[in-house]
C-alpha cells in the first residue's frame, strides 16, 4: 500500500472543508483523486492495496454524526450515510416498513462485512469486474483510454443491458437494487450547498466515460438516503439473488420486486429492479405498468420480464444471464405475490 495522509474530522463542515481545500477536489476522473472520504473501508482499502485506486489523502468520516435512522414527516425514513448495513437491515423500522431493503442487504457480503460497511459506501462500491482489479490488464474504468479487457475476454459476470463498447461491467450492490425499486433519494452536501439526487439518476451507464460511476461530484459527501413511504408494498415484496454459491458471492442476477395488490386480488402498482445485469440497477417503469390492473400470473409476469430484458445482449460466456434473468423476474414476482418473505422467515430457513 502507498503511504497516505489521514484526517478524522468531527463535523460535516470540517470534512467538507478538507475535501474542498484540495486542488483537484472537483476533477471527476474517478481513480485519481488526491483526497477521498473513507467510511467502513471494505472496498476502498482493497482498491488501494491492489493499486487500483491511488489516494494520497484519506478523510475518515466515521466520527461524523450521520449514523441515525429516523422517521421523516412524509411517512418515510432517513437512513444515515454512516449507519452500518447490518444496523440498517435489522432496524425495527426498516424491517417493518421496508422488508425488501432489509432482505437485499442481508443477501450481500458476510455478517462481518455488513457490520463494517456503511450505507453511503455501499452506494459507491466499485464494480467487481476482475480486469478492473488486475492492474496488469487494460481497463477503461481504471485507466481511461487503455481499452476493455472484458470485451472479448471472460464475460461470465458481465452486463447484458446498457453496456457500451468502452465497458461492460456490472454494478455489484444488492442494497442499491432495493433502493432503486423503492425510489430512494440520495442526500448530498458540499461546501457549495446541499442537493438531492433521485436514485434513478445516481448511478450512470458507462457510455464513453466508464471511469465515472455516479453523478456525485468528487467533493460531495453523501449524508443520507431518504426512503419515501412504501407502505403499499410491505405485504408483497421479494428480493431474489442468484449467484455462484449461496453466501459471500456477488449476484449473477438479482431481482427486487414489490407489488401493491388490492382487495380484489388485482395489482394496483409494481416496482421491479434488477441487479447484476447492468452498470447500474436496472429499472423500467413502462414494464411495471404492464402489471397495473392484472391478476398475478405466469403470462403477465412473462410479458413484464420480456419488456425489462428488451435489447439484452449476451457476450458468449454471459449469454445464460438472459434466460436466467427472465426466470428470476417471473419467480420473484410469484414470490412477492404470495406475500413478503421476512428476515424471520429467512432466519428460520423458509426464505428463497
Ligand atoms: C469479500 C466481499 C464480498 C462482498 N459481497 C457483497 C455482496 O454480495 N453484495 C453487496 O452489495 N456488496 C458486497 N460487498 C461490498 C460491500 O457491501 C462494500 O464494500 C461496502 O458496502 C462499502 O461500504 P464501506 O463503508 O466499507 O465503503 P468504503 O470502502 O469506506 O468506501 C467506498 C467508496 O465510497 C466513498 N464513500 C464512503 N462513504 C461516503 C460518503 N458518505 N460520501 C461520499 N463518499 C463516500 C469512499 O470514498 C470510497 O470511494 C462485498 C465486499 C467484499 C470485500
Ligand atoms: S468491463 Fe469495464 S471494468 Fe471491466 S475491463 Fe472493461 S472497462 Fe474495465
Automatic annotation (TrEMBL):
One of its GO terms (molecular function) is FAD binding. Gene3D superfamilies: 3.30.465.10, CO dehydrogenase flavoprotein, C-terminal domain (3.30.390.50), Uridine Diphospho-n-acetylenolpyruvylglucosamine Reductase, domain 2 (3.30.43.10). It is an enzyme of class 1 (oxidoreductase). Its EC number is 1.17.1.4. Residues 1-232 form the FAD-binding PCMH-type domain. It comes from the Bacteria. Keywords: FAD, Flavoprotein, Oxidoreductase. PANTHER family: OXIDOREDUCTASE (PTHR42659:SF1), XANTHINE DEHYDROGENASE SUBUNIT C-RELATED (PTHR42659). This is Xanthine dehydrogenase YagS FAD-binding subunit. It comes from Pseudoduganella umbonata.
Amino acid at each position: 500500500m502507498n503511504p497516505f495522509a489521514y484526517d478524522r474530522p468531527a463535523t460535516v463542515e470540517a470534512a467538507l472543508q478538507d475535501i474542498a481545500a484540495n486542488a483537484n477536489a472537483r476533477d471527476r476522473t474517478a481513480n485519481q483523486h488526491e483526497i477521498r472520504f473513507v467510511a467502513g473501508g471494505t472496498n476502498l482499502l482493497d482498491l488501494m492495496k491492489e493499486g487500483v485506486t491511488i489516494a494520497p489523502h484519506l478523510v475518515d468520516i466515521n466520527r461524523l454524526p450521520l449514523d441515525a435512522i429516523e422517521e421523516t414527516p412524509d411517512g418515510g425514513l432517513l437512513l444515515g450515510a454512516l449507519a452500518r448495513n447490518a444496523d440498517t437491515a435489522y432496524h425495527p423500522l426498516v424491517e417493518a416498513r421496508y422488508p425488501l431493503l432489509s432482505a437485499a442487504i442481508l443477501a450481500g457480503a458476510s455478517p462481518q462485512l455488513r457490520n463494517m460497511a456503511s450505507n453511503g459506501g455501499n452506494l459507491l462500491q466499485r464494480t467487481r469486474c476482475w480486469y478492473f482489479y488486475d492492474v496488469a490488464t487494460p481497463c477503461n474504468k481504471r485507466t481511461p483510454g487503455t481499452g476493455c479487457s472484458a470485451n472479448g475476454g471472460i464475460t461470465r459476470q458481465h452486463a447484458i443491458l446498457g453496456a457500451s463498447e468502452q465497458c461492460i461491467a456490472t454494478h455489484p450492490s444488492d442494497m442499491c437494487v432495493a433502493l432503486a425499486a423503492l425510489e430512494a433519494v440520495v442526500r448530498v452536501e458540499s461546501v457549495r450547498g446541499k442537493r438531492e439526487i433521485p436514485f434513478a439518476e445516481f448511478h450512470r451507464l458507462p457510455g464513453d466515460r466508464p471511469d465515472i460511476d455516479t453523478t456525485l461530484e468528487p467533493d460531495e459527501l453523501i449524508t443520507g438516503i431518504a426512503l419515501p413511504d412504501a407502505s403499499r408494498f410491505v405485504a408483497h415484496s421479494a428480493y431474489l439473488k442468484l449467484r455462484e454459491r449461496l453466501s459471500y458471492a456477488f449476484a449473477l442476477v438479482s431481482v427486487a420486486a414489490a407489488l401493491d395488490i388490492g382487495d380484489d386480488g388485482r395489482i394496483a402498482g409494481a416496482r421491479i429492479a434488477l441487479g447484476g445485469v447492468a452498470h447500474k440497477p436496472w429499472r423500467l417503469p413502462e414494464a411495471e405498468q404492464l402489471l397495473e390492473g392484472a391478476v398475478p400470473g405466469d403470462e403477465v409476469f412473462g410479458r413484464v420480464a420480456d419488456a425489462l430484458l428488451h435489447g439484452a445482449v449476451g457476450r458468449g460466456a454471459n449469454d445464460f444471464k438472459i434466460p436466467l434473468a427472465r426466470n428470476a423476474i417471473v419467480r420473484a414476482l410469484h414470490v412477492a405475490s404470495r406475500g413478503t418473505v421476512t428476515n424471520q422467515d429467512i432466519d428460520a430457513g423458509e426464505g428463497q
